[in-house]
Design brief:
- InterPro entries: Glutathione-S-Trfase_C_sf, Glutathione_S-Trfase_N, Thioredoxin-like_sf.
- This is Glutathione S-transferase, C-terminal domain.
- Keywords: Transferase.
- With 311 residues, the chain is α/β, with parallel strands linked by helices.
- The chain contains eleven helices and ten strands.
- It has a ten-stranded mixed β-sheet, with helices on both faces.
């Protein structure tokens, strides 16, 4: 049995979402710190091209995208649940909205020029320039459009008021009463804003939301220990991928199981992962690929928000 290995960096909001889920599940895990910007040769040895943060590794199985990672951690430890019975659709839908629209607004506010200057005030010379160039490349070719700052400022109170309203009606201390995936998906964008004095007030001005965020962040990150990238690659090389899911496959137009395909995100970070399609489930696609350093790998990618192209 392999411990979960999270490939991440401390300031990544989507990594914070997964770290909080690990804390909520009270899982022990290994931490591999990756570069904030490209190149990321050790990460790409595992993913085959996917460069976004975070990535979860369990042995020789590599999970891309925080939404799919959350489902894998739910399978790792079912209780407490991320998708409470009877609320699965509502929770998953709100989480998808938070990872998309809410994050779009938060990113615009968090990376306005003055806030960026604060974030990189103690950085090495050239680090800010490298970050800006890296993020320009990250968003090139996808459907993700940067939201103008003034529009984000105008619309932010509406989003926060809706969260306040949801919390006021919830039968408990969280968005759907008991903690769920929705809480962690919303929290990471607000955590990003609260990290800087310039934008913290955008969260803390809303008392119910601010108190709720404190409760979510209170789950912490679980128990973890550091691991080097070389050690993680060696774990993958010596492991055997897990058996494929028993779920019946669901193929698409122009591609099928057993075919060589390329799978890429459609919104941003559209670098493709190429390999043999082993499984096409309702939630995930599994590709078989081999790497000179990491050996035989199964790379898991979400079905939603990703495009499959037959080779």
């Amino acid at each position: 049995m392999h411990e979960p290995v999270l490939h991440h960096y401390p300031s990544s909001p989507f990594a914070e979402k997964v770290r909080l889920i690990l804390g909520f599940k009270q899982l022990s895990w290994r931490s591999v710190i990756i570069p904030r910007v490209m190149p990321k040769p050790d990460l790409l040895a595992l993913t085959g091209g996917y460069r976004r943060t975070p990535v979860l590794q369990i042995g020789a199985d590599i999970y891309c995208d925080s939404a799919l990672i959350a489902r894998r951690l739910e399978a790792e430890k079912a209780l407490p649940p991320l998708l409470p019975e009877g609320q699965e659709f509502n929770v998953a839908s709100l989480a998808a909205w938070a990872d998309g629209q809410l994050f779009l607004h938060a990113a615009s506010l968090a990376f306005q020029a003055e806030a960026v200057a604060q974030r990189f005030a103690q950085s090495l010379p050239g680090e800010l320039k490298a970050f800006v160039a890296d993020r320009a490349a990250l968003f090139k070719g996808g459907t993700f459009d940067r939201l103008p700052l003034e529009q984000a400022r105008q619309q932010w109170p509406t989003l926060m008021a809706r969260l306040e309203q949801q919390l006021s009606h919830a039968d408990g201390d969280y968005l759907f009463g008991e903690p769920s995936l929705a809480d962690f998906a919303v929290a990471h964008s607000l955590w990003l804003l609260r990290a800087m004095p310039l934008t913290a007030g955008l969260v803390d001005a809303w008392p119910a939301v601010a108190a709720w965020l404190d409760r979510v962040l209170g789950f912490g990150h679980g128990s973890y220990s550091e691991l080097s990238a070389a050690e993680a690659i060696e774990i993958a090389r010596t492991a055997t991928p897990a058996p494929l899911p028993a779920e019946s496959g669901l193929e698409g137009n122009g591609w099928r199981v057993g075919q060589q395909v390329a799978v890429a995100a459609t919104d941003y970070g559209v670098d493709p992962v190429e390999g043999e399609l082993l499984h096409a489930g309702l939630e995930e696609l599994i590709l078989r690929r081999e790497d000179p350093r990491a050996g035989l790998l199964h790379v898991h990618l979400p079905r939603l928000g990703f495009r499959v192209t037959g080779r």
